[in-house]
Every structure is written in C-alpha cells, then in structure tokens.
Amino acid sequence: QxxxxxxxxxxxxxxxxxxxxxxxxxDSVSTGGYYWAWIRQHPGKGLEWIGYIHYxxxxxxxxSLQSRSTISIDxxxxxxxxxxxxxxxxxxxxxxxxxxxxxxxxLDVWGQGTTVTVSS
Amino acid sequence: QSALTQxxxxxxxxxxxxxxxxxxTSSGLGDDYYVFWYQQxxxxxxxxxxxxxxxxxxxxxxRFSGSKSGxxxxxxxxxxxxxxxxDYYCSSYTPxxxxxxxxxxxxxxx
Lengths: 120, 110
Description:
The complex is a heterodimer of chains A (about 120) and B (about 110).
Chain A: E1 3-7, E2 11-12, E3 18-25, E4 34-41, E5 47-53, E6 59-61, E7 69-74, E8 79-84, E9 93-101, E10 106-110, E11 114-118
Parallel strand pairs in A: 2-11
Antiparallel strand pairs in A: 1-3, 3-8, 4-5, 4-9, 5-6, 7-8, 9-10, 9-11
Chain B: E1 4-5, E2 9-12, E3 18-24, E4 34-40, E5 47-50, E6 64-69, E7 72-77, E8 86-94, E9 98-101, E10 105-109
Parallel strand pairs in B: 2-10
Antiparallel strand pairs in B: 1-3, 3-7, 4-5, 4-8, 6-7, 8-9, 8-10
C-alpha cells in the first residue's frame, strides 16, 4: 500500500523560505510513469496545484508560483521536497503531496496534508 | 491558466441523483485534456473518484460516474447517501499546462 507523509515546520516567518518533505513508502519515486506533486489548500478554499517532479529531475510548476517554487527529489531516501521562498501570509495553507500517475490516472495517492502558517 | 467553473453548492435528498458541472473557460476542456474528479470530506485529503473523464479507480462506488460534452465535464452521483456529503473538485491536466482545479462544489445531502 502506497503512503505519502508530509513533514516540515508548521510555522514560518514572513519573507523566509517554506520547506516541506514528502516521504514515500510502498513505492519508489524512481518508478516510471509517476510524477510527484505538491498541492495546497488555503483555509476554507479550493485546491491549488503547485507543481510536480519526475525522478529524472524534470519539473513543471504552476506559472503563478513558479518564480518562488522549487521541487526536488531524492531517490536514495525515496522522498521529494518543496521549497517556497519569500513567503507571506497568503501562503498559509494546508500543503499536500501526492502521486500523479501520468497521464491518465490523475493524483491517485495523497498524503494527509500538513498545515503551514506564515506569521511573525 | 484557463479556469474550471463549478457551482458553489448542490444539494439532494437521499436516494436521488445529482450532477455537478465543470465548465472550462478560455482554452476550455478540449480533447487533449484529461479530466478528473476528487472528493474531499472535511479535514481530510482529497480522494480521486473519477479519472480519464469517466473511469473509476478500484474501490470507488459505481454510483459515481463522469461524462464530458464539449467544454463541460460532469460528475453524477446516483442513489445519494449521507456519506456523499463532501466537497467535489474537477480537475484537468495537459502536459503543456499542468494541473488545474475547479473551485469546488459543496454537496449537501438533505
């Protein structure tokens, strides 16, 4: 059974960099056909796709967040990460990692989500 | 990025069928778009319930079905049950544009 688990600080100060990890178990991040994604959800709002990465290192970002987002992958430890720079209160959200089974099958496995608050 | 428009809310009585629409604006939901639907209960992570317009992942009830006509995709839930009360999000994917989500629809089971 594939499981994803987000981890990282729950509180980040404005202007700093948000860093989150997603640990993958039951599957390998090196499996072909999968991309590994980050999605966020502002309080009481809808879902916003941040971007995804393939084990080859190929990445693709939401254009609205591209300038501040970096997604990386570590095949040796089977996890992938998100860094979001220059955060503001508008980046306060629940952050989810998910597996995107390309191209047809969608975001088929999700982590439970982690809440990140941006505040001084 | 193009937007996907969903009704903010829908409601139905137990046993009834309801349909949630998802309309693509600007570039629409063309034939090169993959369409998905996700269900999200309060405080929980979203769950994939429809992929590739009208296919159900293993374990998802047959009561959930998807369709698409032109720029509009639809999710139909038949035989509404109390546990169906949740938020539903449509989503599209293309290699060139990445993933887009609709604004979400809150389903209330009356």
